[in-house]
Design goal:
The complex is a heterodimer of chains A (190) and B (446).
Chain A (H helix, E strand, L loop, with lengths): L10 H5 L9 H9 L34 E2 L16 E3 L12 H13 L5 E6 L6 H21 L7 E7 L10 H7 L1 E6 L1
Parallel strand pairs in A: 3-4
Antiparallel strand pairs in A: 2-5, 3-5
Helix pairs in contact in A: 3-4
Chain B lengths: L1 H16 L5 H13 L6 H4 L3 E3 L7 E4 L13 H11 L3 E4 L14 H6 L4 E9 L5 E9 L4 E10 L4 H17 L8 E8 L2 E8 L6 E6 L3 E6 L5 E6 L6 E6 L5 E5 L5 E6 L5 E6 L6 E6 L6 E2 L7 E6 L5 E6 L6 E6 L6 E2 L7 E6 L5 E8 L2 E8 L4 E4 L7 E5 L5 E8 L2 E8 L4 E5 L5 E7 L5
Parallel strand pairs in B: 2-3, 2-4
Antiparallel strand pairs in B: 1-29, 4-5, 5-6, 7-8, 7-30, 8-9, 10-11, 11-12, 12-13, 14-15, 15-16, 16-17, 18-19, 19-20, 20-21, 22-23, 23-24, 24-25, 26-27, 27-28, 28-29
Classes of the chains: A alpha+beta (190), B alpha+beta (446).
Chain lengths: 190, 446
């Protein structure tokens, strides 16, 4: 982009001069190349058919965005057989209901006798409210289960309490039933 | 993107026909069109500027078709109009059928008759090398005065950017404040099981994908230079904070401590990051060097402390805490000392965003089950709701402090919106396809 001085223009235009913006052609080519220069930490998945093709059209200097794609990769390991892995919570509550205490006990027994095993306790919330605040609320649920297990003798090093907030609902929909299904903590063996 | 911009061009042609109408009639026609199912056409959305309330002072400006625009891939005058109207400071007056370019002598009498205080005329010319020369001249109709001109020589792909820069030029000349149209925004879409972090123009258009993931992405936060986005990614089945250079795609783990890592916000100098970590049990706020350091714990509560955001001077941090029993917004010194409560009305106040000029705080307050965007005048503490929607989320300010970007639901669908601080002028932006969420308005970049 260059500045053209029209007859009546004055110093005002000078301040608006856009330096170097006219020379963006080369830069565009670089930006497209950058795609393959994506970080090694992230696996580049093969483009699936309906991929929202990222705009690779030439863009202004410094404006090109290099897209990165992440492949899903997670698998759960087996824990104790026949023990519930999901603990449900009441609305606005972070205490473990009595009917889930036996499941917490069983996981704790398993972990204290299998000290090489580790779990993630994932706290979840329903969809109402802010995402970040819900993340903190889900953390509170995960921490409640973690504390309960450590009181039963499970080593801190075997447990990671994390939150997925409202991001991974067990059931979609804006009904009381869905909300109740989503207010939960999941025990996942690694 | 090529195909969609072709489609967009066609739609814009339709849009221009409504320049025939007076503004009010045009708005009516648009809402009728919306009911008739035109909502599927993205180009209509950028023209959906709602004006409510009285006492608005808007500068009437004429934006006739640029010479050569009909043959150009982007409708410059339509983009200018959408930008300027969205700002709340301008009202486009009827310029249908009038032809003028940057070399045309001003017919002040004619424009005065049409109610315009200013007029921007220009041209788009295809150059031999395939680029376009966009030229504009701005006139003060009242004083019959030439206010200056610009030329932008750009590739076809950058015509929208050139239009936004022209809109900034006009805005700055006529309001004497910096324009924000050429800045960028980030937002996330969810489409099926696919999450996409986009970097788009300030009108939501021209979205470029920065990150595609099968797991959620939340809380994107622009670095002060506009080069990096920090965000929370769930790709390792827990929330982890990355910084992401949008030009190269290079990502760096900023916080992956035991437990959850979330709510990143940059210090104004770009050297520090504040974030919510649960490494010590419970969600607490920590500060860390962007180049890696042991996080320093700033809050010491047994409650939730989250959503930190620095003031522009870097001296204070606003954040959300439920230490009083319900989530409220607090302020503390940047080292964590001297926390003071900021919100006192209602029992659910979250997501504080501070205007760069330091005068305003936007936040979300729950009122009778509805989540509503509020703006507080920080000097007086007086606050008001500025929307009539009930699922508002995630406000952020334009870098000139004049507009707020947020998401809400309209007719059961996610909508990316801008609003003036008084709520009187709102616009629904066209975003990328999918459920749209987590917008963040980027900084001025030069």
């Amino acid at each position: 982009m260059k500045q053209v001085h029209f007859p009546l223009l004055s110093a005002l235009t000078l301040s608006l001069t856009l330096v170097g913006c006219g020379s963006n052609v080369k830069l565009n080519e670089v930006a497209v190349e950058d795609r393959s220069g994506a970080p090694t930490a992230v696996s580049q998945a093969p483009a699936p058919a309906p991929a929202p093709a990222p705009a690779l059209a030439p863009s202004a200097a410094g404006r090109a965005v290099a897209p990165v794609e992440i492949r899903s990769a997670d698998s759960a390991a087996a824990g104790p057989a026949g023990v519930a892995r999901v603990i449900y919570f009441d609305y606005d509550s972070f205490s473990i209901r009595p009917e889930f205490q036996s499941a917490v006990d069983a996981h704790s027994r398993f972990l204290t006798s299998n000290t090489a095993r580790k779990i993630a306790i994932e706290g979840h919330t329903d969809e109402r409210g802010g995402r970040e605040y819900n993340l903190a609320l889900g953390q509170k649920r995960a921490e409640a289960v973690r504390r309960s297990m450590t009181l039963l003798g499970v080593a801190e090093s075997q447990i990671e309490a994390v939150s997925l907030g409202e991001e991974k609902p067990a059931q979609t929909g804006s009904t009381e039933e869905a909300y109740a299904r989503n207010r939960r903590a999941e025990v996942n063996y690694r | 993107m090529q195909s969609s911009s072709t489609a967009r061009a066609d739609n814009v042609k339709n849009d221009l026909s409504y320049a025939n109408f007076e503004r009010r009639a045009a708005l009516k026609a648009l809402s009728a069109a919306g009911l008739m199912g035109f909502t599927a056409l993205p180009a209509w959305a950028q023209f959906r500027v709602e004006v409510s309330g009285v006492g608005l002072t808007q500068l009437p400006i004429a934006l006739p078709l640029f010479t050569g625009e009909a043959q150009a891939p982007q409708k410059i005058s339509a983009i200018l109009r959408a930008d300027l109207e969205r700002s709340g400071m301008f009202r486009a007056v009827d310029a249908e059928g009038l032809k003028a370019d940057e070399n045309t002598r001003l017919d002040a009498g004619m424009w005065r008759q049409r109610g315009a205080d200013s007029v921007a005329t220009g041209s788009i010319t295809l150059l031999a090398d395939g680029r376009f020369d966009v030229r504009v001249r701005l006139w003060d109709v009242v004083r019959s005065q030439d206010l200056g001109g610009q030329s932008h020589v750009v590739s076809a792909a950058d015509l929208r950017l050139a239009a936004h820069r022209v809109a900034d030029f006009i805005y700055e000349k006529l309001t004497r404040e910096k324009g924000i149209f050429a800045t960028r925004i980030a937002y996330v879409t969810k489409s099926g099981t696919r999450f996409n972090l986009w970097v788009a123009d300030s009108d939501g258009e021209n979205a470029q994908s920065a990150l595609i993931s099968p797991e959620p992405i939340i809380s994107p936060s622009w670095s002060p230079t506009g080069a990096q986005l920090a965000y929370v990614s769930f790709e390792s089945r827990k929330p982890v904070i990355y910084s992401h250079d949008v030009a190269t795609g290079k990502r760096r783990l900023l916080a992956n401590f035991k437990g959850s890592n979330s709510a990143p916000a940059w210090s104004p100098d770009g050297r520090q990051l504040v974030a919510t970590l649960s490494r010590d049990g419970g969600s607490q706020i920590y500060a860390m060097d962007v180049n890696g350091s042991e996080p320093r714990r700033l809050t010491q509560s047994s409650s939730i402390d989250t959503e930190p955001t620095y003031t522009l001077d870097g001296q204070s941090i606003y954040f959300v805490s439920d230490r009083g029993g319900a989530p409220q917004i607090y302020k503390m010194a940047a080292n964590g000392s001297n926390p003071q409560r900021v919100t006192f009305t209602g029992n659910y106040n979250i997501s504080p965003a501070l205007s760069p000029d330091g005068r305003w705080m936007a936040y979300i307050s729950r009122i009778g089950g509805a989540f509503k965007l509020h703006v507080m005048d920080l000097a007086s503490g007086v606050s008001s709701a500025i929307t009539d929607t009930s699922a508002d989320e995630n406000p952020s300010f334009a870098p000139n402090s004049r507009l707020i970007l947020y998401v809400t639901q309209q007719q059961g669908r996610e909508a990316l919106m801008t609003s003036t601080l008084d709520g009187k002028v709102k616009a629904r932006l066209t975003g990328a396809v999918g459920d749209i969420r987590e917008p963040d308005w980027g900084p001025f970049t030069r």
